[in-house]
Amino acid sequence: MSQLFEILQQVEEKHLDQLAHVNNVQYVSWMQDVALAHSQTLGLGLEDYLRLNHAMVASEHHVKYRKACFTGDELVLRTWLGEQQAFSLIRHYLFYRKSDQSIVFQAHTLWGCVEISTGRLKRLSPTFSQAYQPLDASIDPFLLNV
After folding, report:
1. What value does the CA radius of gyration of the chain take, rounded to a whole number of Å?
2. What are the structural domains of the chain?
3. What is the pLDDT of residues 1-18, one digit of tens each?
4. Does this model's pTM top 0.90?
5. How far apart are CA 8 and CA 72, in angstroms?
């Protein structure tokens, strides 16, 4: 079973839209950033994907924007793994503002396993299925500041 994974993100002006709050597409970019960082800590970075000739690619995103964020906000970008199937897995995200513990964003992504050389769906290899284990059921991912 896996654990929660977090990185910190400082909101900068470059992350803002015309209304001076974080642009919606920026959250999706941060989802990618925290997912990649988590995969690397699990021993599956880009080099590993290339060597193994398969990788996880995003198939569907489901997002919920809860509160606006502004320049100077420090966010905790949290991710964890959920259900795993033969060809895919679910990754969850919860971003919260560190100063007031407000959840600002929630999402989950369906990631599919593909063979890099052909682009076709591929069954998760034992390397992937062992590394990408779901969150331990005893851990509450919505308990902030853990």
Report:
1. 16
2. 5-131 (3.10.129.10)
3. 579 999 999 999 999 999
4. yes
5. 12
